[in-house]
């Protein structure tokens, strides 16, 4: 979102147009500048009628439609361009940025008028956070065929994501997060936008239905954020290009294995599937994704023994592994000692808290180890004559052992202090859950 510098842009335009003027006007003293296409001017006028500055915002203060005013030169947020193939005699609006985007600006209110789709040369449409409500004009994708960037996050948009937002050959970023949108994700969003790289739909609450299987084939996707919606069904295999995926706090379910054993994910750095209803094992292959840095799977229904892939090397970049609040059992793998932060708490783990983890904490590699609220029966003592680094947090309270003091000093507020788990829960084994 860095619009070209306007003065430079106009100079560029003049140089571009100079031959035309020399040809058209024999008298060189006063070449008139091109004006905005009347249809675009009308659309801007209509937009101005439909939207308003919220108290404290003054975005529209220089939008003056009196005769002789020239929106391309004077209206904040309006950038025009010239395309001799489309409109040989006029400029058209190519970038429209509504609102100032300043952190202390309350933004705009009102609704997006359908006439916004009359600005057919638009490549970028940005509405900064505010209180713009109502639907996204359904025709938007049928008419704004040159859209590269559409960003209307943090407003109060209602209704569906228009299915017209497909077949847009240049669309690279669609950001409609933090609104009140509802309904399904149009499959064509993934299958028919060949250049879509960034898809931000988080925190709408009402986006529902399944994540279409077309998601797997969106070959250029880099960053997808679907957090805090109402999506259901399984997670299809993510496309190989992906670096960032959050689908946290939805109602996705089923096993994770199909999504993480079928396709290579050589670039995936961030994966957040917390707060869903995924079940079955944590696929061992997930720990070997070469670029994985954050793996967040807490608050699901994952079970079985936690394992890393025996042959493949562990990702060397793991900084956070959070698998807390599941139903995982057995002893967790030693190999995870290389993680920067390891959250195992609130599972059904048994056996000894691996010595490698304790060594990693004392050597300063691992900074957080949460093992509380499990069924561990032992924890090895810290390495001799070393002090725990001041920044480290280690917690192993509420297990099937009396935790030594070093294993409770780093417990978060609310963890059950130095208490062991009641003996009757431990005698029946890890089956007696306590969540
Ligand atoms: C938008 O375009 C349609 C059809 O081309 C036209 O009927 C309508 O008046 C235009 N609206 C505005 C506000 O310019
Ligand atoms: C959790 O997973 C188990 C099987 O692993 C299944 O029987 C149970 O129904 C699941 N619970 C929920 C709430 O999904």
Biggest sheet layout: 15 strands, mixed
N- to C-terminal distance: 46 Å
Mass-distribution shape: elongated
Provide the helix percentage. Answer: 10-25%
Q: What is the β-strand count?
A: 28
Number of helices: 8
Q: Write out the distinct hetero groups bound to the structure.
A: 2-acetamido-2-deoxy-beta-D-glucopyranose
Overall pLDDT metric: 89
* Poorly predicted segments: 1-31, 430-435
Helix-and-strand structural type: alpha/beta
Q: Per DSSP, what share of the residues sits in E-state strands of 2 or more residues?
A: 25-35%
The rounded Rg comes to 28 Å
Characterization of the model:
The chain is of the alpha/beta class. It has a 15-stranded mixed β-sheet that branches. A 13-stranded mixed β-sheet has the order 2-5-7-9-11-13-15-17-19-21-23-25-27. The N terminus and C terminus are likely disordered. Bound molecules: 2-acetamido-2-deoxy-beta-D-glucopyranose (2 copies). Keywords: Glycoprotein, Leucine-rich repeat, Membrane, Repeat, Signal, Transmembrane, Transmembrane helix. This is Leucine-rich repeat-containing N-terminal plant-type domain-containing protein. Pfam families: LRR_1, LRRNT_2.
């Amino acid at each position: 979102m860095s619009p070209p510098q306007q003065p430079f842009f106009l100079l560029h335009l003049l140089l571009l147009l100079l031959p035309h003027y020399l040809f058209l006007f024999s008298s060189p003293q006063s070449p008139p500048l091109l004006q905005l296409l009347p249809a675009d001017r009308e659309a801007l006028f209509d937009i101005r009628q439909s939207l308003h500055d919220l108290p404290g915002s003054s975005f529209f203060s220089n939008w003056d439609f009196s005769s002789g005013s020239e929106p391309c030169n004077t209206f904040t947020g309006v950038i025009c361009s010239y395309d001799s193939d489309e409109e040989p005699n006029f400029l058209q609006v190519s970038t429209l940025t509504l609102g100032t985007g300043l952190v202390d600006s309350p933004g705009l209110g009102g609704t997006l008028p359908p006439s916004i789709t009359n600005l057919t040369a638009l490549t970028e449409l940005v509405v900064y956070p505010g209180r713009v409500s109502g639907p996204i004009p359904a025709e938007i994708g049928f008419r704004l065929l040159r859209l590269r960037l559409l960003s209307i996050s943090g407003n109060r948009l209602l209704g569906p994501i228009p299915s017209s937002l497909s077949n847009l050959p240049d669309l690279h970023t669609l950001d409609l997060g933090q609104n009140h949108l509802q309904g399904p994700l149009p499959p064509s969003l993934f299958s028919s936008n060949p250049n879509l790289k960034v898809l931000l739909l988080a925190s709408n609450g009402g986006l529902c239905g399944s994540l279409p299987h077309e998601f797997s084939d969106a070959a250029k996707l880099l960053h997808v954020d679907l957090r805090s919606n109402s999506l259901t069904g399984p997670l299809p295999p993510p496309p190989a290009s992906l670096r960032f995926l959050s689908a946290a706090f939805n109602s996705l379910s089923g096993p994770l294995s199909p999504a993480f054993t079928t396709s290579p994910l050589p670039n995936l750095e961030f994966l957040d599937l917390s707060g869903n209803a995924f079940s079955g094992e944590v696929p061992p292959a997930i720990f070997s994704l070469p670029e994985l840095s954050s793996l967040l799977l807490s608050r699901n229904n994952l079970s079985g023994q936690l394992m890393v892939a025996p042959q493949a090397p562990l990702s060397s970049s793991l900084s956070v592994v959070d698998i807390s609040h599941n139903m995982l059992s057995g002893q967790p793998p030693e190999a995870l000692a290389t993680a920067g932060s390891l959250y195992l708490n609130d599972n059904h783990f048994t056996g000894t808290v691996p010595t490698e983890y304790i060594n990693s904490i004392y050597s300063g590699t691992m900074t957080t180890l949460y093992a509380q609220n499990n069924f561990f029966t032992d924890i090895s003592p810290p390495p001799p004559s070393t002090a725990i680094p001041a920044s480290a947090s280690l917690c192993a309270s509420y297990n099937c052992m009396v935790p030594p003091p070093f294993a409770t000093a780093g417990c978060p507020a609310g963890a059950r202090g130095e208490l062991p788990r009641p003996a009757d829960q431990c005698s029946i084994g890890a089956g007696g859950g306590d969540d």
